[in-house]
Amino acid sequence: xxxxxxAGISRSFGDRRVLxxxxxxxxxxxxxxxxxxxxxxxxxxMRVILGLLAPExxxxxxxxxxxxxxxxxxxxxxxxxxxLYPQTPVRDQIIHFALLEGHAIGAAREVAxxxxxxxxLQGREHTxxxxxxxxxxxRVQLAVALVGDPALLVLDEPFxxxxxxxxxxxxxxxxxxxxxGVGVLFSSHQxxxxxxLCDKVCILDRGRVTASxxxxxxxxxxxxxxxxxxxxxxxxxxxxxxxxxxVNVEFSAADRTTVLVSVDGSGQDVPAEIxxxxxxxxxxxxIETAQLSLADLLAGKVAAGDPGITPGAQxxxxxxxxSQ
Length: 324
Description:
The protein has helices at 42-50, 69-72, 90-100, 105-118, 134-146, 164-179, 191-197, 215-219, 235-241, 272-281, 294-304, 311-323, and strands at residues 3-13, 16-27, 31-35, 57-62, 65-66, 75-78, 152-156, 183-187, 200-205, 208-213, 223-230, 247-251, 258-264, 284-289. By secondary structure, it is α/β, with parallel strands linked by helices. The protein is elongated and about 75 Å long.
C-alpha cells in the first residue's frame, strides 16, 4: 500500500504563500482526484511532486522513504498545457519519448504501437500532432506519460477537451493502470467524473487541504437527506415539515413539486412525521435518498474555509444541491 506521500508541504512565490502544509497520499493502485478552483494550488503541488519546484517546508516520500531522482523517473506526467512537438507525427512522437525513457528502438516501436491501439489512435499514426483535434492531442499526451511504464501517474486535467467517447476511453485506461498497481493522481473540473472514477478525493482551496477521503466518507456529514417528488405543487407539505425541529426544507424545481428534506443524523430512515405530512398532502410520486455531490462538497468546503462544515456552509451545501 506504499506509494506517494506529501507531508506538510508549503511553498511561496515571493511574498505570496500558495501552499499551506499540504498533506496528500496516493497509494499504489489507487486513483485520487485532486479538485479545487482555479488558483487553488493543484498544479503547484504536482510540480513539487515532480521535483520541478522545491518545497520550503515538508517532505515528499515514495514508499515511506524520501523521494529520489530515480523514483521520479517512474512518474508519468501529463501537463495541462501541451508538451508535444506539434510538427511531429503521432507514432514518431511516442517513439521519441520511449527512446528518452531508455527503450531500444525495437521496443520503442512496440510500445508506441500498443499505446496507439489502446488509446484509439489507429489511423492517425502519421498525422502531425498540430493537425489532431484537441481530444486526440490529449490522447497522445497520455501515451507519452505511459511510455516509461510508470509506477505513478500525475495527470493535470487529462479529460480537458475530450468528447464523451474519448472520456470513457481515458477513464478505462486510467482504471486499467490502477488495476495494475499504478497510483494515479489527477485534477479535473469534471466533478461527476471524479466522483465516479476515484477511490479518494482531495479538495484544495487557496493552498490548503480542506477535505480528504473517499467520496462516501466525505458525503457523510452527519445529515440524512431525501428528495420527495409530488405530482402537484407541495407548498403545503413544505410549510408543515419545515416547522419540525431539526428539519431543513428546500424546493428543487421551478414548478415546486420536488422537495429536498434534510434532518440531523446520518443513516436515518425517513421520520414518521415527514411521511405522515406527505400522506396528508397527497399526490406523492416518489421518495429517494439524496446525497451530497462533489460539487456540493466543493462549494461547502470553499465557503467554510476550514476542514469542517459550519452550519452556514451546510446551508450553502443544501442550496447548491437543490439547484442542480
